[in-house]
User: Fold these one by one.
Assistant:
Number 1:
Amino acid sequence: MNLNRETILQLAAHLEGAELGVHDVLKITGDHPDMDWDDAYAIQEEIRLRKEARGNKTVGLKCGLTSFAKMKQMGVETPVFGFVSDYMARPDGGEIKTSELIHPKVEAEICIVTKAPLKGPGCHIGAVMAAIDFVLPAVEIIDSRYRDFKFDLKSVIADNTSASRFVVGGRARDADELDLRTLGVVLEKNGEVMTMAAGAAVLGHPLTAVVMLANHLGARGQEIPAGTFIMTGGVTEAIAVKAGDNVAVRFQDLGTVSMRFV
Ligand code: 0L1
Ligand code: MG
């Protein structure tokens, strides 16, 4: 690590302040060019601790930048990992207030809930398949705190991978009833198809993202506990939304997830 504890704490307060105060900031590597990956995840961890100290519950883990479309959109080549909190959840079919967000975008995600712990290193797709309780569809609303979404990977990790809001659909399925690679997803905004893809767009198989998450945490001496909700990352590129927009994402075999931005 290259940053001292005081700087880590100050950057966590700076980025979380931008999230909660709904204002953008410049990417933090501008002022801290020596920041390394461990520093970035340490800042994210401090943001999580700040939320938990305030009474917010961490309710899931997220994989980001896992699809080729998103990597291309953002000009990066490596996935990132973050978390979601209880206050970020919104009901399927409900409203999302844009006044609480800076510049939201939506992306369709295939999610799982585990029934057994997963621990890397050495986690593999078979271990993930054995540990899945059920599969759920979701839409993530990302809202980078960085001005005009201009950032680098370390800045994004520190900013909890742009986590902001998420909507989970209510139709759970057993993983062995689904082929997650060929599972089709169509994202509509105001009744118009904006983008579509299949699960294989996420690293060839969405569960590869979970393997990478387990190995990432394992390298830090952590595991994914049983009962964890995990978002495997946007299948398509992210689509910008504004007040007045209606979004519906149709997941093959998993139903539709919808929301209205007000
Ligand atoms: O969920 C994600 O794919 C994380 C995206 C982080 C970068 C962005 O804000 O697009
Ligand atoms: Mg995402």
Number 2:
Amino acid sequence: MSFEKKYTADIVVEKVKSILSELTGISDINGIKFTPGDEKGDVVFPCFVFAKSMKKNPAVISAELSEKIKEKGLDDIFSEQKSTGGYLNFFLDMKKFHSAVVSDFVKLQDKYGSLSKGEGKTIVIDYSSPNIAKPFSVGHLRSTNIGSSLSKILRFAGYNVIGDNHLGDWGTQFGKLIYAYKNWGDPKVIEKDPIKELLNLYVRFHEEAGLNSDEHPEEDNELEDKARAYFKQLEDGDPEITEIWKWMRDISLKDFDKVYKMLDVSFEEMLGESFYNDKMEEIKQIAEEKGLLETDEDGVKLIRLDKFGISTPLLLQKKDGASLYATRDLSGILYRKRTWNPEAILYVVGEEQTLYFKQLIKASELLGLGSNCVHIAFGLMILPAEGKFSTRKGRVIFLEDVLKDAVDRARKMIEDRDFSEEKKQEIAQKVGIGAVKYNDLSQNRVKTVGFDWDKMLSMDGNSSPYLQYSYSRAKAVLRKAEYNGDRTWNDSVELEKDEKQLLNRLSQFHSIVESSAVQYFPHIIANWLYELARDFTSFYTNVRILSSEEPYRQNRLILTDFYSSVIKTGLSLLGIETSEEM
Ligand code: ARG
């Protein structure tokens, strides 16, 4: 299904572009600013952009162009045009403009803001990717939130998105785990609290093997050798060992699913590292053929990257023949290319793997695997150091607890409201989880994120509850008005300042979606939604809606409906749900 998505704001900018290129003969014009409502001009063009090619100073260019535009005459969506210093300033006929923006909304409804930019193109997003038998960490939580939001944003921008949870379910650590399980494990105990017990086994292995002390280097360690043998059996498909591994994977996934359910996240694919077990030979072959595969003095196979300013080589095979994280990632690139031929593969992984992704991307280029891979890095998230979490050790419980705590806190906020028990729980869920997601997504992802409950759950700051609440206020107005959805906009009346401000903001939604999608930055949408909600709050506070006369009332209801639709859509792009009552 494809819509004709020509937004009024784009049409306006196109018109300025086309008159400029008609007058100058320059076809590729950049730098036009669209800031509806700005007193300097709704559309502003900085003429220094032409200074070089025209060999004139910007003020002269601007004055000359302005004269010519006046002679030619402008499209009637503009009311005025002038030159100030080095700038050309265009002013819109606001009545025409606003009425066109409303009709965009009337036409597109909840598709308003969506783009056709990505049509026919696929993007693979590799995100979440926790490790089997290990705790789902805060880093995985960030990857999950950011990756899931990006997949929604890119889909809204028209792309076909394949979200792939690249589970860490393969590698030599499973040899250790299987050894530990066979010697000290009790399936019944493990089933009760899988991640915690499997983690205990893993820690015990390291203790018993004395791997934490210097006297027992990995190489000549008896337990290590046994573990290696188990992993070899697993790689070779030994039925008994495979059975144990499968069971560990299943029970781990059950635990992870609790988190995914709370976050309402799902994936198109969950291939995991194990999926590439039988596909890695080809990578080594390609590396060999291209003369890139080297064997070091210990028998480790690797690709050297120093010529490209990366001093650490990328390891493809251990001396015992076992594959590595990178081998599976390279196979993944090849597989994804063949299966989906994506425009890009995005890896939503913490910044601590920056060097690794530099190596991986360079190696993939050298091997000619032919995909545009991008590391979508993010900073740390610092969970509250004090309080009820500090004594907990099992970190999986920890993370689930954090989410549950968020819901409990949200529940306290609405406890005295007049809602049914069920309704209260539903709202608490949306508000609590929303607060955690918004805290993560409203800041530039590369920054370190804190965890300040008061700020996160604040009803009047840059927080998810504030945005959700403004939505439910808008919905309450529409309910009281018995708004029937008549969307005939009356463009003969003068709009109040707050109404104009709100409409101007709403006219920018699609371009915000676009910047967020091309830069892979959810916070661009989040912060814009906050500005938008503030505009709505001013409108709601300063302008009478329900008690106003027609045709003002009708227009104001349309505006309220427009706002509620956009805030709902915008929040949904961050994975945050809204409630009509709150
Ligand atoms: N499982 C890895 C970890 O927890 C993250 C995997 C990221 N994705 C990838 N294709 N390497 O560190």
